[in-house]
Amino acid sequence: MVQLTDDKLSDLSFDVCYSEHAGKLKTEPDIERFGQKAVGLHSFPVSWTPPFLSISTSLHKKWIAANSNERLLLTDLVIECINNWRSNKGVMNFGHRGNGVWLRSSAASETIQKRGQLESLLCQQLGKEKVHKYLDSLFSNPTSSGLVGVVVQTAINKESLYHFSNERRFSPTKNQWEISNDNDLDPYITSGGCNSKQGTALTETHPLIIRPNEKSGSVRALMRGIGRWANSKYHGRIHFEILRTDAQLFLVQIDHEIEIDGVDPKNVKREFTKGNASEVEAFTCYKIGEKSRFRKLANIDDFAVPGYDPPHQLFWCQLDLLHDLVKNHQAKLYREIDKLTGGKLVLREDIDKSRVRADSFNLARTDTVTAAQAIHHIQARIKYWLGKGEDLANICIIMHGFIPAQSSAWAMYDRKENRVRIHALWGLPDGLQFLTPDEYEFDIGIASWSERTNFKEFFLQEQMDGSWKIVPVLIARARGKVLSKSQAVQIANLTIKIGKKLDADVHIMFFCGIPKEMEMGEVLPWFRARETAVYEEKRERRLRKVSIKNISDLDALELPQDIALSLEPEIENYRNNEFIKFVARFAVENDLPVEIQGSPLAHAYYMLKDAGCTVFLAHARKNQRVRNKQKFGKLVRDKIVDKIEQSGEGSLSFKLSKAEKAAAFFGKVVEESIEVINAPSGEEQINELADLYETVIGWIESYGLELNEVTTIAAEKRKKAGGFNSGEVLVGTGIKLGGISGGKHTRYSLNDVTHPTLGPARLRISAARLGLIASGNDESVLLNNGLNITISIDDEAHLQLDFSERETDENQLKFDI
Predict the structure, then answer these.
(1) Would you state the pLDDT for residue 675?
(2) Residue 366 and residue 6: Cα distance in Å, rounded?
(3) Which residue of 158, 360, 368, 516 is 20 to 30 Å from 31, comparing CA positions?
(4) pTM
């Protein structure tokens, strides 16, 4: 520590602490006195970061207590302190000096969640007015909590700034890191993921030098090494800022992720009372299969498929009948509504479209209301429709009890792609429009199941009074799965069955995680949308995002700007179609893309796309969809799956059990052998033989053996009986072949001695014959019943049998089978 003790300014003195470029530290700085940013910088190896100076929070205390003249003196003292530090030999010898220094905040409370709330300033010249203005702004910033220190960093001439993070919002595990590059044209590295488990251990005394002949690979390797080092040094998740010059990387900031107040959505208390439908008078309970002129009732019939009887309880009544009940029997109506629904309910409205001209999509509905509120709503709708001059008999109110679902989902069955996509999020289904969901996919054609668990920062929760609130998710739960495998499979199966029943692509909203007491099943198909399926786009170019919560945010924009509109509506606009339409018109007129956090299966996405907007998903991967899916079902090298995932492409894989390994390695040896046979020559053959060799090594090690154990036995066998180099084929022993007994002869070929043979109702083909077939010599066999079998092996090592009826060919082999 260095204590500034000028006699004239002793009451204005403050503590400072230098990085080790200026000499060995005597005392480690602590967070309370110097702040998170300073302590983080002091935790870096000195060769990995530019020189810096930390000024303690005592300066903040002095500033608050000082008058205007004393603040000017404090500014002089800060500038003098910085200049003295910069004249230090170790700092002056730093070989990457740029122009000036950075002044940056360092608060004890500055964590990942508060990044960017406090200011930074680049000073090419330490002008008194500029420094004074910065300090005054910093120490009076209302967003800061507690006292703030100051970090002074040597400014270096950077080529790019990288953000490198394993925060939970980016990464399921500490070893998976996300690289974000502020320079889209950076040739060294692009934004994307990397795995620190693959990183090489870095030496703290060595600078982070980029190898000149392999810049791209070198930067990524250094990033992996930094991640590995960080995971061994720090507890929890972190976010680095890293500067790149043309030859070196520098760590310039670290932020730590801490738990903030949030809700565990799996433990949300869902109060409900199950209704009693035994005594229905005014209302009618809709029964599956009944004819109805109200489509919202008849739509439930779509969900009646083999093995599933829809358990929906929808009560309905024409508005003309309700008009009489409201006027003359309101108490009776109140009791019935309360009894049928348990006192918490939702009202929806529908019309006979052949008799009422209205947009059925914008018909009224309530949030969760009480029986008294329901009657008030009914009265308001009667007044509305009478004012329109409509016959109330052509309008109905549909009522159902509150459904205490834990989560909700949208599912889409695509007949052409032959797959089901599911997006799910805790809380109310409207949250899926603007909040990040989990993603599931079932490919029917290749019977593959995949899921992507995203970081879900918020969910939409209904409060006790029926209002909605966007609630932060507890960080520890934010990467938890919304749906169980059982729930996801049920949704997929029901969606497929409904699609096949209707012979159509279907798009269905589900309630999920419903309590057993409700007797509605674990998942409940609730609504079928009619939108045309479209697929999301990935934002390839980095744009500055501007948050749009309401129309005022659009009015305040100064255009033109190269920006994306990040749609994050206020809660009042979650179900406001007019707001979405206004945003869409604004975006199209000004040629601006719109970015949403929500699901492309939800309604807001379709509205924006239908209006002609370019819509990006904030959570979309670079290769969000695998358009030409392939099913491999084969053993691959150890790093292949990680590389596929890092490229952003989805994949499905599993680990072999011990019992399965022999079969898998057998198949892999066959596959690699075929590739050796079909390799043209030279380098290609060497590469394929290397793959075959690696496969054999893997097979050996799968038995827990070392390669040298096997090669030792192989050498002994070679010494006793020779190898296989001469290509000698044993035709037979103790018999006469073709009238010649014994000896070595050249009249035979492998084709001659490997013909398929017939056993009782059996066709046998030797392994050597399969080798000939793999070389391109398809085998054609004609059976006595006139059926022809063509045997071939394709490039993927699949044995293929083609059956056809053909005339007898003298040269074909014939069998009685």
Answers:
(1) 82
(2) 71
(3) 158
(4) 0.67
